[in-house]
Amino acid sequence: MSRHSEAVARLSAAQKPGRGAPPYSRWINRRLGRQFAAAAYLRGMTPNQVTLTSAAFTFTGVACIALISPRWWLGLLVGLLLVIGYALDAADGQLARLQGGGSIAGEWLDHVVDATKNCLLHTAVLISFYRFTDLPRWTLLIPLGYQAVSCVFFFTFILVEKLRKGAGRGIHRGAAEGATGRGLAQTFLAAPTDYGVLCVCFLIFGWVSGFAVLYSLMFAANLAVLSVALLRWWKEMNTLSPAAGA
C-alpha cells in the first residue's frame, strides 16, 4: 500500500459522521477532500495552509465571475475552481483530525473564509448579471436575495450549534435521527442547500439564460428550506435551558 493510500485509509477511519449532511457534501466532496488531505499530509502542510489554498481557488473563481463576460469555457473554469476550493475546504478539517486535532484559530479561519465566500459569490453573480447580460433588471434581486438567505442560513446554523453546546446538548440531532432512518431523508431534503451543488451549477455559467433559471430555482429552494429550518430551530430553542453551572 502506498503512503497516499495509507493516509486515505487513516482519514476514512477518522471521518466524522455524515448523517444528515447534504448529498454532494456527504458522498462526493468528503471523498475528494480526503484525497487532498492525504496529499497535503504527505507534503507536510498544515490545516491552515490548506484553508488558505481553498480560499485561493474559491476567490479566483469568484473574481472570474465578476470580471469576465460569460463564455462557455468560463463556466467550466469557474465550476472547476469552485469545486476544487470546496474539496479543499473539506480537506483542512480532515487533515487536522489526521494530525491529532485542529486549533481554535484554525476553526476561526475556516469560518471566516466560509462566511466571506457566502457573501462574495452572490455579489459576483450580481455584478456579472449587471455588467454582461441583457437580463431584466428585476433579476438583480435574485442574487441579492440569495446572498441574504445564504448569510442568514450560515450564521443561524453556527449559532444553533453554539446554543446547543451551551445547553449541554452537544450532539447534533442528526446523529440520533440517522439511527431511525431520518438522517438519509434529511440528506436528500437538504440537497438544494448543498454548496457543492451550487458549485456544479456554475459549470453552465456561460449559458446565461439557462444558468439564470437554474440559479433562481436554487434560490427559491434555499429560501423554502431556510423558512422551514428557522421554524424548527425556533421550536427547539424554546426547549433549551442553560446547562448547570454555565
UniProtKB/TrEMBL annotation:
GO terms for biological process: phospholipid biosynthetic process. GO terms for cellular component: membrane. The chain crosses the membrane at residues 50-67, 138-160, 188-208, 214-234. Signal peptide: none annotated. One of its GO terms (molecular function) is phosphotransferase activity, for other substituted phosphate groups. Keywords: Membrane, Transferase, Transmembrane, Transmembrane helix. It comes from the Bacteria. InterPro entries: CDP-OH_P_trans, CDP-OH_PTrfase_TM_dom, CDP_ALCOHOL_P_TRANSF_CS. Pfam families: CDP-OH_P_transf (PF01066). PROSITE patterns: CDP_ALCOHOL_P_TRANSF. The keyword Transmembrane applies. Belongs to the CDP-alcohol phosphatidyltransferase class-I family. This is CDP-alcohol phosphatidyltransferase family protein. It comes from Nakamurella flavida.
